[in-house]
Fold:
Amino acid sequence: MSKSIGIALLGSGIVGEGVLRILDTQSDRFRDRYGIAFDVRHVVVRDPNKKRSFVVDHPVSTDAEKAIDDPSVQVVVELMGGVDRAGALIERALKLGKTVVTANKSLLAARGSELFSLARKHNAAIAFEASCGGGIPIIDALLRGLSANDIRALVGIINGTCNYILTRMTKSGLAYADALKEAQAAGFAEADPTLDVSGRDVAQKLALLAGLAFGSKFAESDMLIEGIDSLDARDIEFARELGYVIKLLAIAERNGKDEISLRVHPTLVHNTDVLAEVSGSFNAISVWGHALGHALFYGRGAGSSPTASAVVSDLISVGIGATKVVFDNLKVFPDTAKPAKLLPRDQIQSRYYLRLTAKDVPGVMARVTDILGKRGISLSAVLQREASEGEFVPVVITTHLAREGAIRQALTELNALEVIQSPTTCLRIIDQPKEFET
Amino acid sequence: MSKSIGIALLGSGIVGEGVLRILDTQSDRFRDRYGIAFDVRHVVVRDPNKKRSFVVDHPVSTDAEKAIDDPSVQVVVELMGGVDRAGALIERALKLGKTVVTANKSLLAARGSELFSLARKHNAAIAFEASCGGGIPIIDALLRGLSANDIRALVGIINGTCNYILTRMTKSGLAYADALKEAQAAGFAEADPTLDVSGRDVAQKLALLAGLAFGSKFAESDMLIEGIDSLDARDIEFARELGYVIKLLAIAERNGKDEISLRVHPTLVHNTDVLAEVSGSFNAISVWGHALGHALFYGRGAGSSPTASAVVSDLISVGIGATKVVFDNLKVFPDTAKPAKLLPRDQIQSRYYLRLTAKDVPGVMARVTDILGKRGISLSAVLQREASEGEFVPVVITTHLAREGAIRQALTELNALEVIQSPTTCLRIIDQPKEFET
Structure:
């Protein structure tokens, strides 16, 4: 005896086709193992004439409302992307008490609180494993497998496009623009890559992940966000010389006073750190729990099949009733979470990497270190190559822990010096936690 | 409004104390986030006079039956270990319809089918996240987050004791006996380490993990099992020269004909493989799913807090009702899984590492390669140091893919040669799957 679950699939791009392929080819296994027979009642597309490669036939239409309203549909899978139209359709489904499975992090980051509240009002539920980390079951881990833990920090590589570009810049010495073009040609970056390379996609995912980890509400505006679009290949090379690899990291930290900081920026990661090994379109998310210590989840962060793996795993949880139980009982979703106490941005502590362009004249280093020292910023390493006296040369400095506010003030003062060519590049360094290797 | 869950804790060793510490210190968070108030009604111990460091008081007794029978107890947490007594007490709890949370892989590997069936008969459930991989939520991932996938393979480092010993042998050149002594002194190995170093503990865990991954039943007797207790430091050094690190791996594979092989043995892992970086008491489990591709789960595989993290996360799932929903609906547990089709042991394919002790006389290599070649075993690399003619010297050979049966026959023939000093060391090599780094 298997239970039939009627599905309306909104959007049949690469992830949608991946979902259908899994449902088509795995139906026997799903019936045997989970007692579920998925019945795709509607595939809603923009262009019904486009050739599609379904393994079995599915009814294709352009009428999303009709598909959602169909009484034989219990679950609406939203894979259209975008905020306005997708949001309106999800509202419609939730008001009918239907469960929504979505990969739409932009929508959830923008309107999560409202949509989760609407779901609760109508005894519906939202599942969103596919919204972060592709096929890595990180949302389920935060909701379930790590639930005993008071989570201290979450650090992740959660954008496959940026990681692909950075991997190519690092391994082949490409400039940013060339690596981007290559990523676009290989299908790893969109024609307009802004959402990815600006760090905003990562910020949206981080808002969701940190929300679940800390049981708090966050918005993109709570974060320090820097993308990879202004990253200079020279900094990747200097970082390498110093023993680091540059990765675009999402970092959420909670300090002893329960103050939370969220940031997204290119980060120098020590080359022995496991995050340094995460290449290409792979993602990895490290979580530090008070009981568990460090755990890491690694896998494909994007692409048709991996993201479809998350969508269909959600469908199975919906089918057996597990999604509803979790949705109804945990108070960590955007509508039930508590407001977060944010650490003021100036107070965020980090180690820093500075690349100054300094005139090679006597006394320059003394003036630079004086400006840093006055603000309590102490140097960890300095890298300066030989040059002819009087030339402008790159001087790379790494610091010990310092506050964002102090660094900002120091940078303003440094850039004002006549012996320094503005702007000074400022990146952050993350240290491997000590317990990592024991 | 929070729901009260009455608990009887059987066993208060290091994991039991870790569980109480989490329950004691996190009670406010559990009430806020999950709406659950855990009420530890009984802590059953062997020696009631032993000093214990509970944060809050708990009633300690020696009467397990009374604790289980107490009507205010809904969940029995079994952390005693061992098979007979623990099994009898779990039976008692299940017959009363109580949920059991256990970390006892030996018991589940030996009697899982019977106990799961008993739980089903009495409308109870068994949760066992802590039985494999310490705090890593791998069981939950196999049950839920990866459920869309037809799983092809599972490869893991799932014994912290062995990994600690191998890490010390590799990084400090210690002999096995010395590394074991150090592990015992550091609390990473028991006074009688047999269960761990023989590979049996890994085999019991692999039976559970592969059972869930493939929806099949397995027993220890279905596996090829070799421990680390006869590993020679010289092989670690030769492996290093060839670019490999030796790890004790659990390997479950399913081939295109749905034949499954399960094995536990010291394995040469390429030094660029992420598994090579898993040091000390950490665990890591790689899973290959047909949709997801490769995913890896990494974290602390043993110890008080990490294992307690898994136990308490299970308690939370039990408390919100998620455990029961999964237990009732998935047909992958030992009592509902299908019998597995096993690949005959002789047919298992692997690459091999052989260390022969050969007399350095003309024609030896020809005889060795002839014996291997006759069975279709081709050489990948040979390592032989200069020596005086006529001496016995180590000759290390790595092969391309070969069958276990062919290697066994070749070894018998090689060891019978008068120019070879028996026994020849035979280890297996695992290759990084191609898709790993793309």
